[in-house]
Amino acid sequence: MSTPKTWFVTGASQGLGLTLVKRLLREGHRVAATSRSQETLAQAVGTTSAAFLPLQVDLGDDGSVQAAIAQTISTFGRLDVVVNNAGYGIGGSIEELSEAETRQVFDVNVFGTLNVCRQALPHLRQQGAGHIINISSIAALAGATGWAVYSATKAAVSAFTEGLAQDVASFGIKATVVEPGGFRTNFLTAESLTLPQQPIAAYADVRASHARYLALNGAQGGDPEKAAAAIIQLAAEANPPLHLLLGPDAYQRATQKLDVLRQNFEAWQPLTLSTSFEA
């Protein structure tokens, strides 16, 4: 078993977040977990103990996040690992999704994650240690038809985690972005996904892509228990990676993207280099 730590996990009432919280508690860690409903979270975890702090938090409200972090510190005395897991999927072409829908998914997936990082960092800096783990997606590195806005939110998380890791390294704080593929959670259910309310018939390829993904529900190749174990192992590493792919499909999509990028860069190298000032 890894050394017991104090964890702060967002989006913990279902999916990977719930699996992670349950495993952490079984392994003897202290866990502050957030959800939009404290009651739903407590029922889902099914464990009441001095090591478990369920919190009702609006991640889009910086004050709500600040209060949750403060309560975690007050209850457990410190904070070791922050896991920004909360988020949801949205599908559709850019043209089909309203401004309100687009802003909402950025508010949750990106700004909610930023709010947690902003409020946790003063505590981590003061103690000179800590690990921020942001859950992104393989879609951040290798997008797919019909998921442009979702991919954009996850690409933002991956990109700002890279900058964050450099900003906080001198304080003894580590940052990792986890980019999973498909895991057998409720992510691909119609209840969990936001899809266009008024789909445009011309986007046949987008509809076909959504149908393929929805058909995978319950048959995804990733095991959430193994993903949770991997995240716990990650937090125990002295030198964790900046990027961690989870799942064979994530590895395949990422390496294929690397090949495509390399070919693209090399093919257009003459035009790229032609833009420099002449000596």
Automatic annotation (TrEMBL):
CDD domains: 17beta-HSD-like_SDR_c. The keyword Chloroplast does not apply. InterPro entries: KR_dom, NAD(P)-bd_dom_sf, Sc_DH/Rdtase_CS, SDR_fam, SDR_oxidoreductase. Pfam families: adh_short. Keywords: Oxidoreductase. Residues 5-184 form the Ketoreductase domain. Coiled coil: none annotated. SMART domains: PKS_KR. It comes from the Bacteria. Belongs to the short-chain dehydrogenases/reductases (SDR) family. This is SDR family NAD(P)-dependent oxidoreductase.
